[in-house]
Every structure is written in structure tokens, then in C-alpha cells.
User: Which sequence fits this backbone?
């Protein structure tokens, strides 16, 4: 196997591993759903809820970026593996005849 195919498989496996990690992290993230507390002070409750929403938004953004990068790496690995090897054939050129 040539070096291009080996690097293609390496990129493919890194991409798949990153996607698997992303989906496992997303599953673990979704299993720990935090409930809204019922305090008497509206400002305290709003602040607590907003902090939870910001934390979830940052985690979702992190997981989205990881999934995006993993899918790009996987696509590039598959493209590298399935591309046809380039062979340059130099055909002898005949000199052109002047009329």
C-alpha cells in the first residue's frame, strides 16, 4: 500500500474517532438535564436560568464544531482512499510537418 492510502486511512480513522467522541459527549450531556429552581426572587431565578442556558449553548457550540471537524476529516479520508492513482503517461510527440 502506498503512502497516500495510508495517510487516507489515518485521516479517516481520526475523523471517525472524533465523530464517535462527539456523539458520546452529546449523549452524556443530554442525560444530565438540569431543572429550573423555584426561588422566590425573580432576579435570582433569572440569573440562575440564564447561566444554565449559556452553559448549554457553549457546550452545544463545542459539540457542533467537533462534529463539523470530524465530518470534514472523515470525508477527506474517504476521498483520499477512493481517488484513482495519478499516472502521467508521456506519449511521444511527433514533429509537426510544415505544409
Assistant:
Amino acid at each position: 500500500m502506498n503512502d497516500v492510502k495510508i495517510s487516507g486511512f489515518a485521516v479517516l480513522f481520526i475523523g471517525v474517532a472524533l465523530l464517535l467522541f462527539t456523539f458520546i459527549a452529546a449523549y452524556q450531556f443530554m442525560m444530565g438535564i438540569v431543572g429550573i429552581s423555584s426561588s422566590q426572587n425573580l432576579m435570582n431565578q433569572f440569573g440562575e436560568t440564564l447561566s444554565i442556558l449559556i452553559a448549554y449553548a457553549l457546550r452545544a457550540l463545542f459539540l457542533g464544531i467537533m462534529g463539523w471537524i470530524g465530518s470534514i476529516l472523515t470525508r477527506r479520508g474517504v476521498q483520499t482512499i477512493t481517488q484513482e492513482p495519478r499516472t502521467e503517461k508521456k506519449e511521444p510527440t511527433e514533429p509537426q510537418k510544415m505544409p
Q: What stands out?
A: The chain has one domain: 3-33+43-81. The CA atoms of residues 43 and 85 lie 65 Å apart. Residues 3-33+43-81 form one domain.
